[in-house]
Amino acid sequence: MTLFLVAHVAERAVYHDCLQHAMKNNVTWVLLSDVDEFVHVVHPNATLSDLIKPYENDDGLGALSLRNMFYGVRGDGTKFHYNKPRLLLRDFVYREVKPSPKNRRSKMLVRPPNVEYLMIHAIDEREGESGRTVHMDPFEVVRLDHYKNTGVCVRPIRDTQLAEAFTARMEERMAEIYHPQNPSQFYPNHTEAVEDGWSNACPLK
Known about the structure:
Layout: H1 2-24, E1 30-32, E2 37-41, H2 48-52, E3 61-66, E4 68-72, H3 88-91, E5 94-95, E6 107-110, E7 132-135, E8 142-147, E9 157-158, H4 161-178
Parallel strand pairs: 3-7, 4-8
Antiparallel strand pairs: 1-6, 2-8, 3-6, 4-5, 5-9
């Protein structure tokens, strides 16, 4: 429990330091998220810039909250091993049925001048003069896809939208970095799938 509390205090400190630097440099928006979380614009005809544009002149807004959706392997007794490095977007294409509840594992796109105090997953609107939070629709507008390999959790819905959009670009870029002379060494064409037993028990989130 002590380690848990220390980690969260440190994370909040990092967030607030980031906001201070953002305000000094007149940054309009800051996304606070982890390295295994990807912004997923679900709206078919919009970019992230399109979605935040209506809020650009809203001085009462503190943050746009992006609901968390867990992604992983299927978890029913099968997982796949490729003879090439794993990519989260390509290999973790099974998600939960519903996103996490509001302010629980959500992350934020914040307006730095309008935020007084941050918690990990929400603005503390009880402290200071922070602006309000708008919760974005996770199925119609935008959400945060969280790629987490617990090794035990069943994720029943196959959803390859982000994988289809970005896998080819990511594979090409990684091949250029790690095998610039012969990219095929890094990503050979042949793949092999093998079965591996997994438990069906799902941990608390």
